[in-house]
Amino acid sequence: MPVIRIVIVGDTQRILPIERVAFLRETNDAGRIAVGKAVLSEPSDVLVHLGDLVGAVGSAADWVRFDAIYAPGVLTAKHLRVCRGNHDCGGLLMGNPRVFNQRYPESLQTLQVRDVASCRLLLLDTNASHMTMAQWQAQRDAFATQLHLSDADPDVRSVVVFGHHSPFTNGRWHPPAPEVYEGFVGPFLQSKKTRLFFSGHVHGYERFLIEGRHFVVAGGGGGARFAHLHGKKQRQRAELDLPDPNPLHYVVVEIDDANFKCVTRGLTETGTFATIDEFSSLPGT
User: Fold this and answer.
1) What is the 3-state secondary structure (H, E, C) of the chain?
2) pLDDT tens digits, residue range 156-198?
3) I need a labelling partner for 146 at 20 to 30 A (CA). Which of 31, 92, 216, 231 fits?
């Protein structure tokens, strides 16, 4: 059985002007470009973006910057799949989400299902506040149904879940999303074939081990980096507690049958990339 390669990046947005003025947050233009080049240079069967592609979704200039790094033709060749982030929903500061909605209609208010060989990818829209109660419940029901079908399907060896908002995080600015925890964590842990749950939103890298399953926050695609709670102040004990500011980063997952190897590559001060985390996820662990 061939090895499946999934490359994951999140939160590639440029800082909003008000954030730079009011909070003195970093812009990270050079780092964002470096991450993008590294991501696109990685061989992959699918590229997953965890959301918040641009800072102001209604800004033509922001989309020009994004396309200069992540050329649409290249993304198509990389089989890009996108989770909708909060910036991608638009609003008073972010503008009209028309461009995002036209580009990625499959990411709106529904569960995406993508099979790559023996691995099933489930991509969530975690923006509960931008969905009706009926839409949110329909997605929860679809998620539970897909996990049940996956458990019963011998051709599906493993399931990996992606979403923007994090059910577990020690980020200072963004707490865990209770609606994501309540809606998806229970079924995820009860399924026999789920292995990894990736999220973004918090601009840093975190990893948690819950009942033998890895929950990874990978929001390091170029947004202003956020601080985290450390040591005894942590909301949830992290398997990896990096010092702040976390490096910009992306993740590569290699799947061999149902065995995983995950490597996270972080941008160093010299402009090169180094491994900041590496772990395996084996069946039954």
Assistant:
1) CCCEEEEEECCCCCCCHHHHHHHCCCCCHHHHHHHHHHHHHCCCCEEEECCCCCCCCCCHHHHHHHHHHCCHHHHHHCCEEECCCCHHHCECCCECCHHHHHHCHHHCCCCEEEEECCEEEEECCCCHHHCCHHHHHHHHHHHHHHHHHHHHCCCCCEEEEECCCCCCCCECCCCCCHHHHHHHHHHHHHCCCEEEEEECCCCCEEEEEECCEEEEEECCCCCCCCCECCHHHCCCCCCECCCCCCCCEEEEEEEECCEEEEEEEEECCCCCEEEEEEEEECCCC
2) 999 999 999 999 999 998 999 999 999 999 999 999 999 999 9
3) 216
What span, in angstroms and rounded, lies between the C-alpha atoms of 285 and 281?
A: 7
State pLDDT tens for residues 51-110: 999 999 999 999 999 999 999 999 999 999 999 999 999 998 899 999 999 999 999 999
Q: What is the pLDDT of residue 25?
A: 78
Q: Which domains occur in the chain, in start order? A: 4-281 (3.60.21.10)
Q: What is the pLDDT of residue 49?
A: 98
Reported confidence tier of residue 23, pLDDT bands at 50, 70, 90: low
Average of per-residue pLDDT across 16-27 = 73
Q: How many residues does the chain have?
A: 285
